[in-house]
Amino acid sequence: MRIAMLSYRSKPHVGGQGIYIRRLTRELVALGHTVEVFSGQPYPELDEGVTLTKVPSLDLYRPGDEFRNPRPSEFRDLVDVEEWLTMRSGAFPEPVTFSKRVVKLLAERRDDFDIVFDNQTLATPLLGIEGPSTVGLPLATTIHHPITMDRRIELAAAPWLRRKQGSRIRVELPKLGVWRWYSFLNQQKRTAPQLRRVIVPSESSKRDVVREFGVDPGRIETILLGVDDRFVPPTEPRVPGRILAMASADAPLKGISVLLEAFAKLVTERELELVLVTKPKEGGVTEKLIAKLGIEDRVSFANGLTDDELVALMGSAELACVPSLYEGFSLPTAELMACETPLVVSRAGAIPEVVGPDGLCADVVEPGDVGELTAALAALLDDPERRAEMGAAGRRRVKELFSWSAVAASTAQVLEDVIAEYDAERGRNAAAAPTTEEN
Asked: Is residue 438 classed exposed, middle or buried when 0-12, 13-18 and 19+ CB atoms within 10 A define those classes?
C-alpha cells in the first residue's frame, strides 16, 4: 500500500501522538508499505524509509513564543489569515487550517497514494478526501480518545472568574476561555460519525468515542498500542527514594496536582525525590503548587530527552506514578512496565486495561484521591519484594500484548479493508450511473 498519513502536529518529545506516528510508520514500512507523513509544526521525528512532507502553519504556538503575532510577510494566503484570527479569538485553529492545506496538497497528488490515514485531525474538510471531485481516495482515521474528555476535566478545574492584581486589575473568565479554546470540537463531533473506519487504542476509548462522538461501533476497530524494544529493565541500581511521573505538567487531565499533594505528605517522613518528565509552564499551575507545598528542593523536571535517556530515567526510579484523570491508552504506563518499574496508577480511562485486571502489574487507586494515592505510594515504597514482583509481572504483560509490529500488521489489515470497501462502493456507483445512451 501507498499510505498518506496525516498529523496536524506531531510533537516528538511530549505526548503520545508523536510516538504513535514514529513507531507505527516505521513498522508499516518494515512490512513493505510506502508511508509519507504530512504534518504541521512541530514536525515529527521519523525513522529511515518514512518520508516527511511538511505542511507549514504559522506556528503560532512555538515554544517560547506562544500566541505570537506573525509579521505581515509571513502570511501566504487566506488560510493563514483564518489561522491567526481564530487564534486571536481564543480558539485553537490548527485542525481546521491543517486540513484545508493538506486536502489541497493531496488533490495534486492523488495518483501517489492508495489511502489517506488521518491521526485525529477530524476536521470537516477532510471528508472531501473521498470525493472524486476533490481527492478521490479512501479515508481512515485514528481517534486516540475524544477530546471532549479533556474539555470536561479542564472546565471542572477552571474558575468562572479570576482577578489579577498589578499596575491595574485584570479580570479573566477562565471557563469561557476553555469553551472557546475547545470550539474545534464542534467540527470533530460532526466529522467523526461520517468517517468510513475509525481505529482506537482501547475498549475504553471505543466506548467513549461511541458515546461522545456518536460513531457507529460497527465502524470502530480496537488496536492496542505497542512498546518499542528499547524499553528494557535497567542495568544500573535504581535510585533510592526516586519517584517518577510522565505528564504534561499544567494539564489538569494528567492529575499532577494530586501527585504533588501526596508527595508533599510523604516527604514529611521520608527521604524522597520526585522527577516529572515534562517542561513546566513558567509560573504555571504546577510551579505555583510546588512552591505552595514547599517541596521545591525535592521536585525536578526532565525534558528534551533522547529515547535512550528516557529509558535510563524510567529504569532509575524505585517506582512510578500515573495519576491521570483520564487516558485513551497511556503509552508511558506500558513503557514503564517494560522497564520493570513498579507502578501506582489511577483507575481512569484505559489505564486499567493497560495494567491488567489482576493487580499484579500496578496498584490502582481512584483518580483525584490524594489520601488513597499517598497510602498506595507509601505501601509500595516500604515493600521492595513486592516492587520487584510487580516490575517483573509488568514486563511479562508488555511482552505478551504490546508490540508495534503487531499494531502495524493489524492497522494494515484495516486499511486494506477500507480500500476494498471504497473501491467496491465506487464500482457499484459507476454501474448504477446512467449511460450516455440512457440519457
From this structure: exposed
User: How confident is the model at residue 249, as a pLDDT?
Assistant: 60
CA dist 207 and 220 (Å) reads 10
Q: What's the confidence (pLDDT) of residue 420?
A: 97
pLDDT in tens, 326-341: 999 999 999 999 999 9
CB within 8 A of 426, min separation 6: which ones?
132
Q: Please state which of the four CATH numbers 3.40.50.2000, 1.20.140.10, 3.40.50.720, 2.30.30.100 is assigned to the domain occupying 239-401.
A: 3.40.50.2000
Measured distance CA(337)–CA(218) in Å, rounded: 32
CATH 3.40.50.2000: which residues of the chain? Answer: 2-147+181-226+405-424, 239-401
Residues 120, 143: contact at Cβ < 8 Å? yes
End-to-end CA distance of the chain: 38
> What are the Cα distances from residue 97, in Å, to 14, 92, 183, 198, 415?
22, 10, 14, 22, 25
Q: 165, 316 in Cβ contact below 8 A? A: no
User: In this predicted structure, what is the pLDDT of residue 438?
Assistant: 52
Q: Would the CA dihedral through 418, 43, 321, 148 be positive or negative?
A: negative
Please give the pLDDT value at position 248.
66
**Which cell numbers hold the place of 241?**
527514594
Torsion sign (Cα): 105, 111, 112, 118 = positive
pLDDT of residue 430: 73
State whether CATH 3.40.50.2000 applies to domain 2-147+181-226+405-424: yes
Is the predicted pLDDT of residue 390 greater than 70, yes or no?
A: yes
Overall size of the chain counted in residues: 439
Angle subtended by helix axes 78-88 and 94-108, to nearest 10: 170
Question: CA-CA distance, 77 to 345, in Å (whole number)?
Answer: 47
What is the pLDDT of the chain when averaged over all its residues?
93
Please state, for a pLDDT cut of 90, what percent of the chain lies above it: 81
Quote the pTM value: 0.91
- pLDDT recorded at residue 175: 87
Nearest to 254 by CA among 222, 285, 226: 285
Q: What is the mean pLDDT of residues 401-417?
A: 97
